[in-house]
Specification:
alpha+beta, Homing Intron 3 (I-Ppo) Encoded Endonuclease, Chain A, 2 domains, three-stranded antiparallel beta sheet, 7 helices, 5 strands
Length: about 220
């Protein structure tokens, strides 16, 4: 009964001390058989050993080099790892995790751009593949490297559309004119207005370049 103090005779205590190193199941079975105690549970004896500070030498962990008793023994059908519910979530032979970074694997960055895994060593980790922006990768395959001082602008404002024809090569200095805060908000404009905004932005940029070269105010 919970809360009931269990008393042990001197003979019982002497036996308990002498056999304290036994595994708890054997400890309990042997004690009850010897002293005919049906009021003592294995939990009671375990608690007694803890209160007395009796060390068993067991930590509940496998020590280095120790061989598990069930090594090489398969579970019985329908048990453990062979239970139908367990098998539902087990990897099958040859199956790869869903997040395997295989060649050509794509993902979307926090900025909404598609990234693709290519056959090129990662300069930071040394891994045999690395992720690059897919729209840049595809555009450069079709048109060559992006010149210094330039970048690609998404024409339909859908960053997931990585077709090279959807990306225009523009000077980086053009971006402020196309921005939404201080520029003409290209990405927020209606599709039919976007070409006009792009033309105006290019005109403003050209005028600024001419003024810079001639020193005009």
């Amino acid at each position: 009964m919970k809360g009931h103090w269990i008393k042990y005779s001197e003979e019982e205590m002497a036996w308990l001390v002498a056999n304290r190193l036994l595994p708890i199941a054997e400890y309990h079975t042997a004690f009850c058989a010897r002293f005919v105690r049906d009021d003592v549970s294995a939990g009671n004896l375990h608690a007694l050993r803890k209160r007395k500070g009796w060390k068993t030498g067991r930590t509940g962990q496998f020590s280095k080099g120790q061989v598990p008793p069930n090594k090489g023994k398969p579970c019985a059908p329908g048990k453990g790892g062979r239970h139908p519910n367990a098998r539902k979530t087990q990897f099958k032979k040859g199956q790869l995790p869903h997040n395997t970074n295989y060649l050509g694997h794509e993902r979307v960055s926090k900025d909404g751009y598609v990234e693709v895994s290519i056959d090129e060593a990662n300069p930071h980790t040394g891994f045999e593949r690395r992720y690059v922006l897919k729209h840049v990768h595809e555009w450069e395959k079709a048109n060559g490297p992006i010149p210094e001082g330039h970048c690609l602008k998404c024409l339909d404002s859908n960053r997931l559309n990585t077709e090279p024809s959807n990306w225009a090569l523009i000077p980086r200095a053009l971006l402020p004119h196309l921005g939404g805060r201080f520029g003409m908000d290209y990405d927020g404009a209606e599709p039919e207005v976007k070409p006009v905004i792009m033309s105006v932005a290019k005109l403003k940029h050209a005028v600024k370049q001419v003024r810079t070269k001639t020193g005009a105010a």
